């Protein structure tokens, strides 16, 4: 599933490709992609004649701002956008086509069919699902080490599921949580309340650095991710732990281990990310 760096890359390329274009009509081949309004006919009718102003991002969602309307789009597992000339053959698994009045088309392709599209009146999209419960943007000025600590420091649950939960910090998925925790030298199974102030600072820095570098590299192309112009991201060549099980750690030479934490494949270097021993005496004392 694309995470913040991949969605941000799609946003940038898409913005260059479609901003200023006017939608003449919309064809929906797979109604289930359209979540709001429920009827694909109403979705298509509402978009007719709208001009795309800009493409923004909230967490892992794209926000396509138009005159008087906002489309919220989630790519889920394998959704892809691409801009084509009208006469170019339509590829298999193309489910929604936005026909522009300049002879080009924005096509949404999705082999797995899990992607979603919602329409809202401007501003409404932030107050209703799927965007209303999203947490803080990790690359925003508002996100600081103190904010991260305040959000999570009292939680008694393990860090990895907390960082994956989009209600606290948005945009992090399995790849970037593993990479950030490695960079911070913190084991994903540590409980949030076990972190010291210094460790919150390290984790904060690691999240910013990891996401920043990945955005710079155009995201990570694993499985089928490509940006809006069909180009691959390059950050997968900089992974320290993700997908590197049984390979040597770049920092200490030890072996990267893979385990399952909260149902997700998790990659750690046990030497660089030590797991403190459970304090048994605490349990005995009770
Ligand atoms: Zn190591």
Automatic annotation (TrEMBL):
The active site is at 2 (schiff-base intermediate with dna), 3 (proton donor), 60 (proton donor), 264 (proton donor). It catalyses: Hydrolysis of DNA containing ring-opened 7-methylguanine residues, releasing 2,6-diamino-4-hydroxy-5-(N-methyl)formamidopyrimidine; 2'-deoxyribonucleotide-(2'-deoxyribose 5'-phosphate)-2'-deoxyribonucleotide-DNA = a 3'-end 2'-deoxyribonucleotide-(2,3-dehydro-2,3-deoxyribose 5'-phosphate)-DNA + a 5'-end 5'-phospho-2'-deoxyribonucleoside-DNA + H(+). Pfam families: Fapy_DNA_glyco, H2TH, zf-FPG_IleRS. CDD domains: EcFpg-like_N. DNA binds at residues 93, 112, 155. Residues 2-115 form the Formamidopyrimidine-DNA glycosylase catalytic domain. GO terms for molecular function: 8-oxo-7,8-dihydroguanine DNA N-glycosylase activity; class I DNA-(apurinic or apyrimidinic site) endonuclease activity; damaged DNA binding; double-stranded DNA binding; zinc ion binding. Its EC number is 3.2.2.23, 4.2.99.18. Binds 1 zinc ion per subunit. Gene3D superfamilies: 1.10.8.50, MutM-like, N-terminal. Residues 240-274 form the FPG-type domain. It comes from the Bacteria. InterPro entries: FPG_cat (IPR012319), FPG_Glyclase (IPR020629), FPG_N (IPR035937), H2TH_FPG (IPR015886), Ribosomal_uS13-like_H2TH (IPR010979), Znf_DNA_glyclase/AP_lyase (IPR000214), Znf_FPG/IleRS (IPR010663). Transmembrane segments: none annotated. SUPFAM superfamilies: Glucocorticoid receptor-like (DNA-binding domain), N-terminal domain of MutM-like DNA repair proteins, S13-like H2TH domain. Keywords: DNA damage, DNA repair, DNA-binding, Glycosidase, Hydrolase, Lyase, Metal-binding, Multifunctional enzyme, Zinc, Zinc-finger. GO terms for biological process: base-excision repair. Its cofactor is Zn(2+). Involved in base excision repair of DNA damaged by oxidation or by mutagenic agents. Acts as DNA glycosylase that recognizes and removes damaged bases. Has a preference for oxidized purines, such as 7,8-dihydro-8-oxoguanine (8-oxoG). Has AP (apurinic/apyrimidinic) lyase activity and introduces nicks in the DNA strand. Cleaves the DNA backbone by beta-delta elimination to generate a single-strand break at the site of the removed base with both 3'- and 5'-phosphates. Monomer. Belongs to the FPG family. This is Formamidopyrimidine-DNA glycosylase.
């Amino acid at each position: 599933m694309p995470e913040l760096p991949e969605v941000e890359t799609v946003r940038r390329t898409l913005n260059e490709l479609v901003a200023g274009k006017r939608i003449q009509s919309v064809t929906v081949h797979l109604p289930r992609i359209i979540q709001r309004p429920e009827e694909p006919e109403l979705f298509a009718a509402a978009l007719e004649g709208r001009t795309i102003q800009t493409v923004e991002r909230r967490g892992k969602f794209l926000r396509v701002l138009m005159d008087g309307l906002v489309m919220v789009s989630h790519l889920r597992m394998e959704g892809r956008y691409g801009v084509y000339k009208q006469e170019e053959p339509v590829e298999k698994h193309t489910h929604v086509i936005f026909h522009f009045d300049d002879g080009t088309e924005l096509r949404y392709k999705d082999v797995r069919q899990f992607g979603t599209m919602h329409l809202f009146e401007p501003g409404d999209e932030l107050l209703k699902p799927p965007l209303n419960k999203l947490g803080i943007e990790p690359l925003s000025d508002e996100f600081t080490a103190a904010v991260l600590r305040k959000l999570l420091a009292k939680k008694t649950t393990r860090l990895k599921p907390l960082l994956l939960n989009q209600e606290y910090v948005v945009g992090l998925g399995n790849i970037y949580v593993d990479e950030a925790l490695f960079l911070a030298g913190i084991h994903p199974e540590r409980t949030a309340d076990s972190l010291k102030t210094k460790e919150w600072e390290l984790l904060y820095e690691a999240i910013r650095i990891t996401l920043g570098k990945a955005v710079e590299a155009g995201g990570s192309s694993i499985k089928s991710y490509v940006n809006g112009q069909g180009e691959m991201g390059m950050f997968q060549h900089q992974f320290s732990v993700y997908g590197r099980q049984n390979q040597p750690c770049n920092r200490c030479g030890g072996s990267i281990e893979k385990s399952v934490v909260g149902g997700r494949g998790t990659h750690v270097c046990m030497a660089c990310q030590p797991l403190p021993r459970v304090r048994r005496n605490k349990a005995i004392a009770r």
